[in-house]
Each structure stands twice: as structure tokens, then as C-alpha cells.
Amino acid sequence: MESQPLAPSADSSNTGHADIQALTERIVLASSFVEPLRHEVGKVVVGQKGMVDTLLIGLLADGHVLLEGVPGLAKTLAIQTLSQAVAVDFSRIQFTPDLLPADVVGTMIYNQKEEAFSVSRGPIFAHFVLADEINRAPAKVQSALLEAMQERQVTIGSETFPLPNPFLVLATQNPVEQEGTYPLPEAQVDRFLLKAVIDYPSPEEEQNILRAQVAAGPKPKLLPVVKPDALLNARELVREVYMDEKVERYIVQLVHATRRPENQGMGHLAPLIGFGASPRATIGLALAGKARAFMSQRGYVIPEDIRAVAMDVLRHRIGLTFEAEAEEIRQEQIVTEILDQVQVP
User: Fold this and answer.
1) CA-to-CA distance for 44 and 220, rounded, in angstroms?
2) Per-residue pLDDT at 10 exceeds 80
3) Maximum distance among all alpha carbons in the chain?
4) Which one has a higher pLDDT value, 59 or 75?
């Protein structure tokens, strides 16, 4: 069991364990909202701890999150509940095949009295934006959303408007029903820090869901437990979490194994991988690992942090060949094998 940080490297900017201890003490104070946030979300969302933690990691690492699962698994409910527990503005966009870019970002409206155009802002101007069934909208809508996700700004007419801070796109998609859906462009998929695949609840959790939904009386009232300023401060601390050079090399080896698996002794994976993870995956693994350490009230990253987030960071960034699809091999199998084969520091 790893309970101590890896020793700081000689060329590290950290001065040693004393600095890490001081940082850990700051993190313990700054992360005090994590458990109350879990508790508030848990009032409404039964089970699905993994999904809730994925949303929290995205929140702390300042990265967009894509949730995939069949209908009825509380994806939308979890995102709505999280926005209520964080004192931020929230908007929901139901993606449909007839959606237009103006329906998302807004448009210019002509004012007859003033004989001039004015900007009518769309639902994208919120702290948390729920893109429900994101794969149902056509390419023009996705391109408008892409600017918001990457640049944190929106262009309407000839003007550019910054989006609020924090800004987070939390998207859902249904992997089963493909009629009337559009595959997301690879460039957009890559902008999601995490992609979580949501599974069915256990029998015990489903019984609790049943009791909660059919019980008489008022529904649980949610209280905001963290304000935007505290969240932004937490994000700054997440970036300060210490990461040893050995962990950095481990991250790079994992990502490079998705591109050149033969260099890691996994040549049999090469015909199955059309393209590997981009450098965004390297950055994403580091940030998500630091966010997980922050949630564990640690001032340093351990390899287990990276392994815990690797599946959600990598699964959507690996392209499969026709051979892999013919053999019904999924990205999750490739990531699992890479995690098993790449040596842990």
C-alpha cells in the first residue's frame, strides 16, 4: 500500500516533504466541501458513486465530461443535482436533429425602435451546461459548441463574448439507439476530459431507488454547499498538487502505448488501434490524477490516482481499426491491457 509520496526528484522545484505536508494541510481545508457535495448529490442520486466521482473530478480539473449509458440511469439527474449543490447558473439543452447553432449560442435580433441589432444570448451562457443526448445534433451545432468548450468563448455575428467562469459542459449520450444520431467529431470528443460509461445499479441500489421514488412526502431539498469562488480556489490548488517525475514518465508511457504498443511489448495491439491518444490525454491524465489526489486530501499524486482515472481519460481517445471492430474488441479492453502491461513506478 502506497501511503507516502514518491521522493521529490533532484531537479524538482519542490523543496521536499515539508512543502508537500504544508500543501496537504491547505488541501485538507480547501477540500472540505467534497464530502458534503457527495452527500447532497446522494440525497437524490442513489448509488452511481463512480459517476458522481467522475463529475467531481471534471469539476475540479476544469474539464468537460461525457456520460454514456442507456436511458434511465440518472445521468441527467446527477448533473442537474450537482448544479444545485454548487451555487452556479445552470442550463439544459436538449439536442435534437433540427437544433440550430443559434439555439445554443444565441443570435442577433433587430430592434425596430432603436433601429439596431442587439445580441440575444443562448443557453450556453451558464456555468454548467447540460448537453442532453449530444449525439442527436448535426455538425453545425457541434462546431458552435466546440468553440465554447475549447476557447471558453462564443462568437455571435462579429462579436466574441467570454463565457462565465467556471464553465463546464456535461454531456450525455445513448449508445443503443442510433437512429437519428450523429457520431461526434473526433476533435470534439477529444475536448472531453473524461468519458464515463454508466452501468445498471446493483439489486440493492435499485431497491433503494424504488423506495425513494414511490415514497410519500416531500422530495429531499438540496442545499448549495460550495460557491464558485471556493471552487476556483480549489482548482488552483489542484494544479499545485505535487507530481513526481516517475509518475510523469508513467503517464507518458501509458499514452505512448496507445500509439506505439509494440514499443511496450504489445505488438499484437498495433493492428487493432487506428490512432492513439492525443497529447490532451497526457495533460488530462495529469490533471485528473491531481484532482483525485485533492479529493483524497493528499498533496501528492500516487500511481493509483493515474490508474483510477486512466479508463475515463483514454477510452474515447483511441480509434479502432476495422479489424478490431470485426473482432468486437472495445477500447476498454485495449486500455485494460495497457494498464496491465506498462510497469507501474
Assistant:
1) 7
2) no
3) 71
4) 59
Q: Into which CATH architecture does domain 31-239 fall?
A: 3-Layer(aba) Sandwich (3.40)
Q: Do residues 139 and 182 lie in contact, with contact meaning Cβ atoms separated by under 8 Å?
A: yes
Tell me where in the chain the CATH 1.10.8.80 domain(s) lie: 1-30+241-345
For 279, counting Cβ atoms within 10 Å of its Cβ (0-12 exposed, 13-18 middle, 19+ buried), the class is exposed
Closest to 131 measured CA to CA, from 167, 156, 177 = 167
- Angle at Cα 89 formed by Cα 238 and Cα 289, nearest 5°? 20
Of 209, 255, 224, nearest in space to 82 by CA:
224
Q: What is the pLDDT of residues 154-194, one digit of tens each?
A: 988 788 899 998 898 989 887 765 566 777 878 888 899 99
* Residue 86 CA to its chain's centroid (Å): 16
Length of the chain: 345
Query: How far is it, in rounded angstroms, from Cα 41 to Cα 35?
Result: 10
All 3 cell numbers of residue 301?
A: 499524486
Q: Give the whole-angstrom CA distance, residue 76 versus residue 79.
A: 5
**pLDDT tens column, 201-258:** 778 877 877 877 776 667 777 788 888 888 999 999 999 999 999 999 999 999 999 9
> Bridge partners of 118?
109
In this prediction the pTM is: 0.85
Contact 91, 126 (CB under 8 A): yes
- Percent of the chain surpassing pLDDT 90: 37
Q: Is 174 helix (H, G, I), strand (E, B) or coil?
A: coil
Amino acid at 96: T
Q: What are the pLDDT digits (tens) for 73-89?
A: 777 788 888 888 888 88
Burial class (CB in 10 A: 0-12, 13-18, 19+), 45: buried
Q: Which residue has 507516502 as its cell numbers?
A: 4
Question: Based on the number of CB atoms within 10 Å of its own CB, is 336 exposed (0-12), middle (13-18) or buried (19 or more)?
Answer: middle
Cα 306 vs. chain centroid, distance in angstroms? 15
- CATH fold group of domain 1-30+241-345: Helicase, Ruva Protein; domain 3 (1.10.8)
